Amino acid sequence: MGKTALLFPGQGSQAVGMGKDLHDHFPEAREVIDRARAKIGTKYMDVMFAGPEEKLRETRFTQPALFIASLAAHAVLVKAGVKADFAAGHSLGEYSALCAAGAFDFETGLELVKARGEFLQEASQSIPGTMAAFIGLERATVEEICQKASAQGVCQPVNFNCPGQIVIAGAVAAVETAVALAQAAGATKSVRLSVSGPFHSSLMVPAAQKMKAVLDRAAVKDAVIPVVMNCDARPERSAEEIRRKLVLQIDHPVLWEDSLKALFAAGAETFIEVGPGRVLSGLLRRTDKAKKFSNIEDRKSADALLAAAARGRPGSSDGAAAVSR
Questions:
Q1: Domain limits of the chain?
Q2: d(CA 266, CA 275)
Q3: Cis-peptide into 157, omega within 30 deg
Q4: Phi-psi group of 243: left, alpha or beta (phi > 0 → left; psi -120 to 50 → alpha; rest → beta)
Q5: Dist. CA 241–CA 220, nearest whole Å
Q6: Fewest Cβ atoms closer than 10 Å to its Cβ: which of 180, 251, 269, 324?
Q7: Fold of 128-196
Q8: Burial 126-149, CB ≥16 within 10 A → b, else e
């Protein structure tokens, strides 16, 4: 019988109002959000529920809000008795996955993502940089393009999302050069992204160093189920390795396509996207259309998923592909 993996979204999946429907209809989700409010105050929940969108897009707000909304959705699954064999999360979502897997408690996770969001925002403001998405090019071609563009500054592939969808990051001039080179190489799409910094590139080393100091003090435990980590696409349960890999994640690429393939190899057949949006469902579909997938982000999706789980057939919903970071 196939195994089940939980997938947790990263920055880019956020939307004003996320988590509110679950808060209003599921006591277990409301409890998670109330715990967050008690821990870090009301401003994050206010922005999460009511916006404005410009404020929610600020990394320091986006990251805690996504973590809270995702763990509220996870609480609904736990209450319903849905079991998972693996977890994984895209970028910020890795913290949600690790919390769901028991590597740290909710309050610890909230402290970590709040610090992470602040460090990334600080680094982005002090180090000019940007990102771009390429669709329709092979990895080797993108790597060659980045190498050529590096004459203008740092330029690196940073998100390997699914076959033919890769995100790069680096200095503004270098990324602009890479976009032009990708267009010349026949990319289906080659565009700069509206982001505040060059996430997951070597320009994020200052943020990684600050995060290491926070993680060294945090109460991290061995995970109950394996979490496939972004930096090497390998399943991990060791607390020591989790700390180390969370630091690496900040200034190293997100190997999401590789992570999905590692889950396939481990026997995962059913996937549940836990949290706002369906970005990861879209990436899964573009990696292997045969895999079953569903999502939980609001009352409608929760009711459909839980009804299907009760029948022993997790539901399927189509997710549009998008760039996530």
A1: 3-125+203-310, 128-196
A2: 23
A3: no
A4: alpha
A5: 10
A6: 180
A7: Alpha-Beta Plaits (3.30.70)
A8: ebebbbbbbbebeeebbeebbeeb
Alpha-carbon distance of 97 to 223, in angstroms, equals: 10
CA pair distance 68, 242, nearest whole angstrom = 20
Pick the catalytic residue from 74, 90, 200, 252: 200
* pLDDT tens for each residue of 191-213: 999 788 899 999 999 999 999 99
β pairing state of 86-89 and 227-228: parallel
Which fold is adopted by the domain 3-125+203-310?
Malonyl-Coenzyme A Acyl Carrier Protein; domain 2 (3.40.366)
Is residue 13 among the annotated active site residues? no
Does 200 participate in catalysis according to the annotation?
yes
Which of 13, 70, 91, 124 is the catalytic position?
91
pLDDT one-digit tens code per residue, 148-188: 999 999 999 999 999 999 999 999 999 999 999 999 999 99
Q: How many CB atoms lie within 10 A of CB 244?
A: 16
- Tell the burial category of 277 from Cβ atoms under 10 Å away from its Cβ (0-12, 13-18, 19+): buried
Q: How far is C-alpha 137 from the chain's CA centre?
A: 22
